[in-house]
Amino acid sequence: MIIWMIIGMALVTAIPRVLPAFIVDIVSFPKWVDRWLNAIPYAALGALIFPGILSVKPEAPQIGIIAGLTAVLLAWLDLHIILVVLGAIASVFLLTL
User: Can you tell me where the transmembrane regions are (predicted)?
Assistant: First the structure.
């Protein structure tokens, strides 16, 4: 009985992940839907990163905000992602000395 539950849970989680890969070539969306779908990864990334920025040092949230702005500036200058991350880490380090 338990093996069928495991197989059922695997199917329930696998199908929504695999199905879009097959549908994306068949279905054509209007332009506004494509633009909306293209914005989802950025919105999700922002939702994941922003709470971390504010909790770098809870008693001084400005440190995380400055580090986040540093990362945005370095990314805007089109630097490699490793340099952007290292720049944000360095700014937190320097501000917490």
Answer: 36-54, 66-95
